Amino acid sequence: xxxxxxxxxxxxxxxxxxxxxxxxxxxxxxxxxxxxxxxxxxxxxxxxxxxxxxxxxxxxxxxxxxxxxxxxxxxxxxxxxxxxxxxxxxxxxxxxxxxxxxxxxxxxxxxxxxxxxxxxxxxxxxxxxxxxxxxxxxxxxxxxxxxxxxxxxxxxxxxxxxxxxxxxxxxxxxxxxxxxxxxxxxxxxxxxxxxxxxxxxxxxxxxxxxxxxxxxxxxxxxxxxxxxxxxxxxxxxxxxxxxxxxxxxxxxxxxxxxxxxxxxxxxxxxxxxxxxxxxxxxxxxxxxxxxxxxxxxxxxxxxxxxxxxxxxxxxxxxxxxxxxxxxxxxxxxxxxxxxxxxxxxxxxxxxxxxxxxxxxxxxxxxxxxxxxxxxxxxxxxxxxxxxxxxxxxxxxxxxxxxxxxxxxxxxxxxxxxxxxxxxxxxx
Length: 427
What we know:
Blueprint (H helix, E strand, L loop, with lengths): L1 E7 L1 H4 L6 H12 L3 E8 L3 H14 L2 E5 L10 H9 L3 E3 L1 H13 L13 E3 L3 E3 L8 E6 L2 E6 L3 H20 L4 E10 L3 H7 L1 H10 L3 E7 L2 E10 L2 H19 L3 E4 L4 H11 L4 E5 L5 H5 L10 E6 L3 H8 L3 H7 L4 H14 L4 E7 L14 E6 L5 E4 L8 H20 L13
Parallel strand pairs: 1-2, 1-3, 3-8, 13-14, 13-15
Antiparallel strand pairs: 4-5, 6-7, 7-8, 9-11, 9-12, 10-11, 15-16, 16-17
Helix pairs in contact: 3-4, 10-15
């Protein structure tokens, strides 16, 4: 099956809103093995929308449109679909009453063009919207199924998963159950993950089911395993051996599955040991502490942090020896360890993490941008340091990479593993 995505909205063309709907839809199509041949954006112009719908329906087996279904004059997707199909619009009494009831429940009169949301092209099928007033619709243009969904992301995603995806799979003769499992890795490049999984990926591609896909973020790669079957149990059974093999190939770089984010894994490991952590930050400027407070209840294991950007504050606030700073400078492995120990001791934590380095873009103290040191101080005086190099990355990315590496240093230590250095080999 070949699909096309059509996003409607002048605001998308102007860059006022990022077209996240198309990215999300592309991912969902990839998961179920539907090829997306084109993804197009058009403005709020009736002729442009009609032409785009007409052209897409002649090329693709399915077309998914987002946007242009609301209650304003520039919401023209219904009109364009009616014109492309050569049929009039007719108002659906049930939808009209639903809209009136919704406004009444809010204590507001029905204003403006709100009721145009009840207009459907003759021959179209309603797609219910439980999260808003604008219903979606499906209409056949020749042999192509065209689905129009609201542009509001949460409305669009809910409608696609509940109504569009099952219909598409049925039309394609696909299995009724689509199950995904996501493995999360840290401190390894996407290219290395792809290389380690190359043979497995090739085998699965040849079989067609399950399938692998990859999504990279700073210092993290998500590996999605997707299986299609007649039931969830059968899909799970297909995924299980693939997950086992992928974990074997990726080793200890895998830190979680599905919703297990890195900060949550760190908190869980600390809680299991009755331990806490405090942080001392220089180049990350509070980002590490922010990452450790994302999770509700994080105060159970996160004591706090000190952001000591100026060198003199590293000494005054964290107890880093002034002679060490004078001799080695602020960007040094020993300073990172001293910062970690200072955070541990002064904030009363079991573990301390310290990060220092050069975020750039210019060199500092004779060190190039991307030089980073992560120090860890444990409860019995044990210390370690991890010094990844992020040369060539922009300032914001270096800071993000540093946060992930710091969290992973603590994760690995809590598991009895050394910091990960093998960019060429995940181990």
